[in-house]
Specification:
Blueprint (H helix, E strand, L loop, with lengths): L2 H27 L3 H6 L3 E2 L4 E2 L15 E2 L2 E2 L3 H30 L1 H20 L5 H29 L5 H5 L1 H25 L19 H8 L2 H11 L6 H6 L3 H11 L7 H19 L14 H16 L2 H15 L3 H18 L1 H10 L2 H23 L6 H19 L5 H8 L6 H30 L3 H18 L9 H8 L4
Antiparallel strand pairs: 1-4, 2-3
């Protein structure tokens, strides 16, 4: 791998950074007092809480936090605002099929980054209605859904076969990095605006009156920075050589391959890669134009079902229920507001980020299937232990920390296995003729199930509390059965060899 190949992969992976920041920012924004009051999740009459979140019983106690009262429709509104992003991502994944084939992967990723920026501005400038912020999140979701299909596809089409999995997993790495960046920046903002704010202990005539809204507006508007950054950087990257060949632009494809391999267009390596791509394109054309129905043909349908189910199980491991609502989960376990909102989320997101690196190593050494099998068993165990420890927290802080440690270990188990593998797998198993459509099936499955989790998550946690972890443990058991007996390994194959294996020709 040369520097340019690495640079291309990392830059394209910044689409994951946008995804990660969008996920990470909502965990903190949802517990910002100003946000809760502005959108009428909670009301505040001026009462205060002490450092541990308990009600103030006498004037001598030090006042730390606002004592907010939850509205009856809080869980519903929270679910709608959070899940609107995922609904947009679902639509964006469907759009990616047409846009990626019509305009190319590189140009469409740039368009998606611009759409993301517009959505971020709408969110940050929202009026006092859940409708406007939901629309803004839906628009950013369109971008994330589109780029969720095209970024891994683009990377897989410019990466050498022997390190394709490692480079494709950069998308997941950047997603986890975006989450930790969001956690650090917005936890600092929360710390300076929600601890000992003005007006504590002073009765308010209007319990729904706004408080200063800088905190959540800044958090959401900051998304403009990575959005514009991705759009600008992508303008310097080459188009996919496989897409260029599909448009009869073979000379340009050869130039791109030469640049990626740091050699000349006449080099034998470049000519071999170009010939393989041209043969794949010729075979695709000989079979006629592709359709969605072709994904369910006898030759391709198994990889379609593998991809759809892999992304489905990825979401039902419960990872995004933790990432979206982790501050509230820690509060439910019994930690203080400061620990729940600042300390524990940053630690957890750092674990998520660091744990992606073993996955980048293991995806080529151990294989895709092996990681899925190991990860599903580990996550099942840690979901069960999280529930078990959470039932004992009344006995003391040791049990609280054991429950949180189980959550961290579950996130570790996910981040190096089920985090990167589905994105790498769906980008490499389909033939060129239906590659974008096939990848879109996986991404649609991801965001559809992500939307379900995001929408029902608040109500589920409210009704079942930590018993929700048992539901996710059961899903991990099913994910193990699926991985062990249905998934086909495809480590180390180039994209053309992949077609042969999946079609039963090798």
């Amino acid at each position: 791998m040369n520097f340019f190949q690495f640079l291309v992969a990392v830059t394209a992976s910044l689409g994951g950074l946008l995804f990660g920041y969008e996920c990470g920012v909502m965990n903190v924004v949802l517990v910002m007092d100003a946000f809760r009051i502005f959108f009428k999740f909670h009301s505040w009459n001026g009462d205060a809480l002490d450092e541990n979140g308990n009600e103030i019983t006498n004037d001598s106690q030090e006042k730390w936090y606002r004592d907010l009262k939850e509205a009856d429709n809080k869980a519903t509104l929270e679910g709608v605002i959070t899940s609107s992003f995922v609904l947009g991502a679902l639509c964006g994944a469907l759009m990616a099929t047409y846009l990626g084939e019509r305009f190319g992967r590189q140009r469409t990723i740039m368009i998606g980054a611009c759409i993301f920026t517009c959505g971020a501005i709408i969110q940050g400038l929202s009026v006092r209605s859940w409708i406007m912020i939901a629309i803004g999140r839906l628009i950013t979701g369109l971008s994330i859904g589109c780029n969720g299909v095209l970024c891994p596809t683009y990377i897989s089409e410019v990466a050498p076969a022997k390190i394709r999995g490692t480079l494709s997993s950069c998308y997941q790495l950047m997603t986890t990095f975006g989450i930790i960046v969001a956690a650090i920046i917005n936890s600092i903002v929360w710390y300076y605006t929600n601890i000992k704010p003005e007006g504590l202990g002073k009765k308010r005539s209007d319990k729904w009156a706004e408080v200063p809204n800088f905190e959540w507006r800044f958090a959401l508007l900051f998304q403009v920075v990575p959005g514009l950054g991705l759009a600008i950087l992508m303008s310097f990257l080459p188009k996919s050589p496989r897409w260029l060949c599909s448009k009869d632009r073979d000379e340009e494809a050869a130039e791109v391959l030469a640049k990626l391999n740091a050699t000349s267009t006449s080099d034998s390596l470049v000519q071999e890669e170009l010939k393989a791509i041209q043969e794949d394109v010729a075979a695709t054309r000989a079979a006629g134009s592709s359709s969605v129905g072709e994904l369910f043909s006898p030759v391709i349908r198994r990889r379609t079902f593998i991809t759809f189910l892999m992304q489905l199980f990825q979401q039902w491991t419960g990872i995004n229920a933790i990432m979206y609502y982790q501050s509230q989960i820690y509060g439910e376990i019994g930690f203080t507001k400061f620990m729940s909102t600042v300390v524990l989320p940053i630690i957890n997101n750092f674990v998520n980020f660091i744990s992606t690196f073993p996955g980048m190593w293991g995806i080529e050494r151990l294989g895709r299937k092996t990681l899925l099998v190991i990860g599903s068993l580990m996550m099942m165990v840690f979901h069960i232990s999280t529930w078990a420890f959470s039932t004992q927290t009344y006995k003391g802080k040791l049990w609280q920390y054991l429950a949180v440690a189980s959550i961290f270990l579950m996130v570790f188990s996910f981040a190096w296995t089920w985090g990167p593998v589905p994105w790498v797998y769906q980008a490499e198993v389909f033939p060129l003729r239906v590659r974008v459509k096939g990848s879109a099936v996986g991404t649609v499955s991801n965001f559809l199930n992500n939307w379900i989790i995001a929408f029902v998550g608040p109500a589920l946690m409210k009704a079942w509390s930590t018993k929700t972890f048992l539901l996710f443990a059961a899903a991990c058991l099913l994910a193990w059965i699926y991985s062990q007996f249905y998934v086909i390994e495809c480590k180390g194959l180039n994209l053309e060899e992949m077609d042969a294996k999946m079609a039963g020709k090798a």
